[in-house]
Design a protein that fits this description.
This is Cytosine deaminase-like metal-dependent hydrolase. Helices cover 34% and strands 23% of the residues. It contains 12 helices and 16 strands. The longest helix has 18 residues.
Length: 409
């Protein structure tokens, strides 16, 4: 007889008859939000509930390594995109629209974050605009979302200067306040092409990070030789300040456009200094080479970037879709290669962002996804509805819908 586990379960219970990606049938014992054991024929705790997995495929909760929850129009009326082609066009258009429309970063980030959880994401890093017009208003909204979902979603917030650090006086002071107010990571943007002074920009960024003892996640869209120059300056500071393992470079388009010899020399330094790379795998922009990065010991993980906002109509809170887009961008077709794409939104992403106690092993936080698929590659390509999503030991979604009318407090 099977006892249905409720969404509020936070004590001992047992998930039975699930398949690991190698085909092994196992049970999963869960206690107080953690995986107590994984293996065949596990004993039931006295009085503990049982959830029959019915042979479904078992995956760890997904990891979103780079998104912008504060910007989204998720669930709102369609935004008609008529923005110009330049990066600065998008920045100014977004600032103007958010101010004129009264866009509510709190309500919108909560709607999208709940959709992420419902689709199986249990760890998430979001960049939040710190703006001299809006002040910390967007951050305050996302901090409220993090608090609402704290029992089911492990969220990191990046204090992100969308207009750069130097162009708008007072941005550095706002970033300082944002890190004191609860932001976990310091963001930055194109020190050469946006700030126009990469040395000063990077010096100030690293000084702020050191002052608050926070890691850095920098957007680097700069192409080719310009991007390589900025990258070199950044790596110099990582080495000088002992910030190995504390810096992520998002996008890093230059690594997809450099000559092989120059690229590989830069990748060797990146690996040596334990700097991680984030890609959204855009279809029409150079991207860091996935397999070369893996071969050279460079951590490369994945994320969506913005989802349904003034920058783009695209994106989805389903990280299996992002894994598929990563696989398509890199020409991955074999089942074992598709597993590399899934690593970009699971184990590798958790390691790069510093999400602790992640994975399918005893002692890890019980973040689990069940779905009907023959194997991992099939799951990525077909992206079936989630039969069950468990976050921090709680069942939060069944059959593609929230387990209750609302996820979170």
């Amino acid at each position: 007889m099977t006892t249905t586990v409720t969404h509020t379960t936070n004590h001992a219970w047992l998930m039975t008859n699930v398949r690991q990606t190698d085909g092994t049938r196992v049970d999963v014992s869960i206690a107080n939000g953690r995986i107590a054991a994984i293996g065949p024929n596990l004993p039931r705790e006295p009085g503990g509930a049982i959830e029959d997995g019915a042979g479904a495929l078992l995956l760890p909760g997904f990891v979103e390594g780079h998104t912008h929850l504060d910007k989204t129009t998720w669930g709102m009326s369609w935004y008609r995109n008529e923005v110009g082609p330049k990066l600065t066009d998008r920045i100014e258009n977004e600032r103007r629209w958010r101010a004129q429309s009264g866009h509510d970063a709190g309500a919108q980030s909560l709607a999208l974050a709940r959709a992420f959880v419902q689709a199986g994401t249990t760890r998430l890093r979001t960049h939040v605009d710190i703006d001299t017009d809006a002040g910390l208003r967007h951050l305050e909204g996302v901090l409220a979302t993090r608090d609402t979902l704290r029992d089911v979603l492990d969220m990191q917030i990046v204090a992100f200067p969308q207009s750069g650090l130097l162009g708008r006086p007072g941005t550095d002071a706002l970033l300082d306040r944002a890190l004191s107010a609860g932001a976990d990571v310091l963001g930055a943007l194109d020190p050469a092409l946006i700030d126009g002074d990469p040395v000063t920009s990077l010096d100030l960024t690293f000084e702020l990070a050191q002052r608050h003892q926070k890691p850095i996640d920098i957007h680097l869209h700069e192409p080719g030789e310009i991007g390589a120059f900025t990258f070199g300056l950044l790596l110099d500071r990582v080495a000088a300040l002992g910030m190995q393992g504390q810096v992520v470079v998002s996008h890093a388009f230059c690594l997809g456009a450099l000559p092989e010899r120059e690229r590989d020399t830069l990748l060797a330094r990146i690996a040596d200094l334990c700097v991680a790379l984030l890609t959204t795998a855009p279809p029409s922009t150079p991207v860091p080479p996935l397999k070369t990065c893996i071969d050279k010991g460079v951590t490369l993980f994945g994320g969506n970037d913005g989802i349904r906002d003034t920058w783009t109509p695209y994106g989805s809170p389903d990280m299996l879709e992002r894994a598929m887009l990563i696989a398509m961008r890199y020409g991955l077709r074999r089942d074992d290669d598709l597993a590399l794409a899934f690593d970009c939104v699971s184990t590798t992403a958790a390691r790069a962002c510093g999400f602790a106690q992640y994975g399918l092993q005893a002692g890890a936080r019980a973040d689990l996804v069940l779905l009907d698929a023959d194997g991992l590659a099939h799951a990525i390509v077909a992206r079936p509805p989630r039969k069950l999503v468990v976050a921090n030991g709680r069942i939060v979604a069944r059959h593609g819908a929230p387990a209750t009318h609302r996820i979170g407090r």
